[in-house]
Amino acid sequence: MRPPVEQFALGLDAKTQQAVARASAMKTAGRPAVLAGAFTDVEAARQAAAETRDYVLDHLHDLLVEYESNATSNGWVVHWASDAHAARQIVLDILRDAPAGPVVKGKSMATEEIHLNAAIESAGRRVVETDLGEFVVQIDGDTPSHIVTPIIHKNREQVGESFAREGLGPRTDDPATLAYQARVHLREAFRTAAVGISGVNFALVQEGAVVVVENEGNNRLSTTAPPIHIAVMGIEKLLPSAADLPVFLRLLAGSATGQRITTYTHLIRGPRRSDERDGPEQTHIILLDNGRSEIMKSRQRAILRCIRCGACLNVCPVYRQVSGHGYRHPYSGPLGAVLAPSLEGLKAYGDLAKASTLCGACEEVCPVRIPIPDMLVQIRHRTVRQVGDPSPMPWTAYASAATHPGRWQAAVHLLPEAGGLPFLFSGWTQVREAPRAEGRRFRSWWKSR
Ligand code: SF4
Predict the structure, then answer these.
(1) Distance of alpha carbon 273 from alpha carbon 224, whole angstroms
(2) Would you state the pLDDT for residue 158?
(3) Which residue spans of the chain are classified as CATH 3.40.50.10420?
(4) Which of 202, 301, 370, 374 is the best mutation target for the ligand 1 pocket, counting ligand atoms within 8 Å of the beta carbon and taking the most?
(5) H helix or E strand, kind and range, residue 195
(6) What top-level class would CATH report for the domain 5-292?
(7) Contact 311 CB / ligand 1 (< 6 Å)
(8) pLDDT, tens digit, for every residue of 89-132?
(9) Atom 7 in ligand 1: residue holding the nearest Cα
(10) Which of left, alpha, beta for 78 (phi over 0: left; psi -120 to 50: alpha)?
């Protein structure tokens, strides 16, 4: 169990912190120009995207039923998973009847959320992450530190060391050589894979299809080379139809990586048709609830508009200091500070809502205009009410003084003589300067007039 965010930040080595801060800032830099080039009115596009996502949430039940019907007609086998355990079990059942061979996986936050890799390995199957960043995470026994760029906390020298240690080739820090070493290694896994697992960026109701976007081409191979493809998605990932894609694809690419469009956009309609040479014989889609129905009823409902672009992480001054690992959950940054406690409870993750300056940068960049700061304040409030406040700050004493004029006057007389705020707020002042009392007291000045 990792420590709370602030303690994690104090223990984070300078090299890692600098790598995260630099890479996050770089990813943010290209965003405004790219979005301005993609839309005549960026704000109108964000508003339209937010409204489309709200429409989906408002009609989620009916749209899911329609999606299931259209996807089934296309040949998908549709599975419903109420929680992480059910989703893992569905995958394991499919694997039990699958031919021998490794499981190749594209990057997917839903599978991180349900800890799928550990379950597959416990069942005795080899699973190979094929996204370059996720591959490094896997061979290092690490966890992703960003929802879009999992190894934002590592530099290329560290990747070179990992590859050399695993025997992928001579040690190098040249990105092109490292990519080549990974390609050679992964190609064998693709060639012999029995099952490919992917996430889903969007599921199109009218077309009964899924959309997967990527830059590396590994998802193309994971979803087409093996005879079985399993797609795992949260139930909220629907879009009404392919007509919605032009806005969402440009908003996603521009917000995530400052690209005009991702290198590959796959629309997958189901298994290989009789007149097609390539593609899987079976396609399964797992519709994962895992707490989302509860979020739908809560004040955090709008977090389900999220399209996992990662822009809120990149601009967050706290994320840049603590890295994704500080959040103790696959979903990190401002998104994680809302989603982790909403999915898994305030007791386990309510403290994450304090990991924010409430500067509002996350809401400003969010392509679907999620009011994250408001949600963080609500979660803080609920956490204090339901779990209690583990903070060392003596709020009870403060509240008592602030609501009784006599006590307040006594306190303001005593504090400067007793060393003032640093005496009371030693935890607070470890990383901040306490304000000093300066000049005359207001009350004595007022009396003298
Ligand atoms: S909350 Fe908004 S900015 Fe953050 S990942 Fe989701 S869509 Fe992107």
Answers:
(1) 12
(2) 94
(3) 5-292
(4) 370
(5) strand 195-198
(6) alpha beta
(7) yes
(8) 999 999 999 999 999 999 999 999 999 999 999 999 999 999 99
(9) 306
(10) beta
